[in-house]
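How a chain folds remains the central question behind the approach discussed here. The record that follows shows the chain in one-letter code together with its fold in token form:
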Amino acid sequence: MDVAVRAFKGSVGLNTRSNLDIYFDKREGSGFTARVTDLNSAIKVLFYSVETDNLLGKPESTVLYYNTQHSGNQEYVSVVASDQGFTGTARTSVVTDIRIDLVVVAVNDGPIVKCSEVEFNPTEDVLGSLKGVAIEDVDLEEQIESSLASRNWMGKASNSPYLNMMRVQASLTYGVLKLGYTRNLQLIFTATTMYMTISPLIFGHDVCRVSDLIEDSDVLSAQLGARAGPDGAALPATQVSPYQAICAYDNIGGATCPTGVEPGCNCFIDGRCTSTNGKITLHLDRSRAILPFRDALTVLLDGRDRTCGGMPIYPFPNNFTTGKKCQDDQVCSADELPKCVPGVTCACCANVSFICTDSNDCSGFDSGSLCGCVKGGDGTCGPYWLKSEGPDGVLTTDLISPGKKRERGL
């Protein structure tokens, strides 16, 4: 029998080569003829690796940084067998094959910082430029598709702004450092201030619903709850200070806030939750105990106002949601998420009283309002899928919006 074993991208080896007539033997696999007993011994165990030992991790490798968790990449091992036709009167071979799909799990390849200069020689009291510093990261732009990563950290609301972004810290022992380019940079902290930005993740998220809680010490303290130390012993309850007690003041040194301890001190807050983009930025004074506040607010954002399909809860007075309110995925598995009928039960997401047949019918309410919602108190829609792509079942609500990206579940 004639057998060929190949890997699509990686390297595959045989269990044994005894009594095989090998006609091709390369990195990606082997082809051989043998009797059934011998070939079954050869393929009983296949030794797969993403690359041969002499090329693994080297620039010459053709699969360097290759994994199957993004961009539709795939990997598989194929085994093709031919009886060569010698047992039939027609002398026509019969060929059969099997494909074994493989998941090459993504790993995080760290960034590389480079500098073309050996050293810099600035002049005292003269503002100069430090040129030649560059950072590379081969997998920063990967759009990883992993249910485990999504459940553990990628799916958290507080982590979503950091996906496919790199954090860089530049510091000096003495002197002042200024950036020559600031566009598209998200400032996290300076020598004196840490910044936290609360922004809507998708159209309609009501930032005001959580931003009002930054001054509620009891709510913030409850987010941390009971925690255990490294030795397993219970840690004392953490009292989280309200924003007013740990913020950076915008009027310090003025008449109402000369030293920073007066009642007239005002906190820096950039933006308004009622603005068009609904984004606000908090300024935290790094000389104060800000880490419990940061952790508590992060937990609060991750767990607040969850809905099936990740649909927003709209602000007052139109404070409905088009996704069923939930605390975990099990709530969303119930069979009470009906599909809507265009022109009959489908409504605009920004106004569930308006029946629609297409998203264009909803353009007069809000930019981004979609057609595909169903009336029902706190919402009975979601998760959303494009009709041409999503599953067709009792748990699916069709999103009538050609050309728009689908929204996955909770």
Observations:
- Residues 291-303 form the longest helix (13 residues).
- Residues 308-410 form one domain.
